[in-house]
Specification:
Layout lengths: L5 E5 L6 H15 L6 E5 L2 H10 L6 E4 L16 H4 L5 E4 L2 H6 L4 H13 L3 E6 L3 H5 L3 H12 L5 H4 L3 E4 L13 H20 L1 H6 L1 E5 L4 H8 L6 E4 L6 H15 L2
The chain binds 2-phosphoglycolic acid.
2-phosphoglycolic acid (PGA) binds next to strand 8.
Length: 257
């Protein structure tokens, strides 16, 4: 089954609302033609409604960078999937920065994934090992564990709407990316095979799995030419209009069907 490639720009804590809207306005026409590729931007919560309104008639979709698992209630600082629903199609959860700095647990990632799916949105679930785990040869069991925990209680039909982003922590924002072969191998053995064990081959073949970690136009093709890599979750390079447009163009050329 051909999986539609997905390039998502994770802007993290960058760009004011005005800057975010201006960026979306400049980016959208440059990547509008590449319909083979799903194109997504994830602005800060503060810029979300303005960017969604700017991209209302654009094929570029909006993602949130997190969401809470409850619909509403006494959860100071949080935003629910239900609240995000009018503005976004995707929600990134389990990002390693949230796991490291905000105490995001596997259990909460799973709760969030279920709430996002229940709202009809699609989670982008980030997983990935630390440098110490990588060097100790623990990558596959660790990532496998994260994938199993994230999908606990999710039905196969819903799994097909999940996107997984494999991001080795040692490659995020460091300029050091995994090689395409290595990333594909880990994605195949730790992510796709794990989904197959739990939900069967058909579901595993339909789930889109991104690579993330220092992706830029210069290495995009190396990742996307791999059979198990269906796109990228991009931080730094997604903050530059020309780089973002180049990533989409490469995805269309390498993976477009
Ligand atoms: P990076 O970030 O592209 O800047 O390495 C990737 C991510 O954190 O999603």
């Amino acid at each position: 089954m051909a999986r539609r490639p997905i390039i998502a720009g994770n802007w993290k804590m960058n760009k004011s609302p005005d800057e975010s809207v201006a960026f979306a306005r400049e980016l959208s026409p440059k990547i509008a033609a590449y319909s083979e590729v799903e194109r997504v931007v994830a602005p800060t919560f503060l810029a979300m409604t303005a960017v969604a309104s700017e991209l209302k008639d654009s094929p570029v979709k909006v993602a949130a960078q997190d969401s809470h698992w409850q619909a509403d209630g006494a959860y100071t600082s949080q935003v629910s999937a239900a609240m995000l629903k009018p503005f976004v199609d995707y929600v990134i959860i389990g990002h390693s920065e949230c796991r490291a700095y905000l105490g995001e647990s596997d259990e909460n990632v799973n709760r969030k994934a279920k709430a996002i799916l229940a709202e009809g949105l699609q989670p982008i679930i980030a997983v990935g090992e630390s440098l110490a785990q990588y060097e100790a040869g623990e990558t596959v069991p660790f990532v496998r564990f994260q994938v199993i925990a994230a999908q606990d209680g999710i039905a196969a039909a819903d799994m097909a709407r999940v996107v997984i982003a494999y991001e080795p922590i040692w490659a995020i924002g460091t300029g050091k990316s995994a090689s395409g072969d290595l990333a594909d191998d880990i994605i195949r053995t730790a992510v796709r095979a794990t989904i197959a064990e739990l939900h069967g081959d058909n579901t595993a073949e339909s789930v889109r799995i991104q690579y993330g970690g220092s992706v830029k136009p210069g290495n995009m093709e190396e990742f996307l030419s791999q059979p198990n890599i269906d796109g990228a979750l991009v931080g730094g390079a997604s903050l530059d209009v020309e780089d973002f447009a180049a990533l989409v163009e490469i995805a269309a050329r390498v993976k477009g069907h």
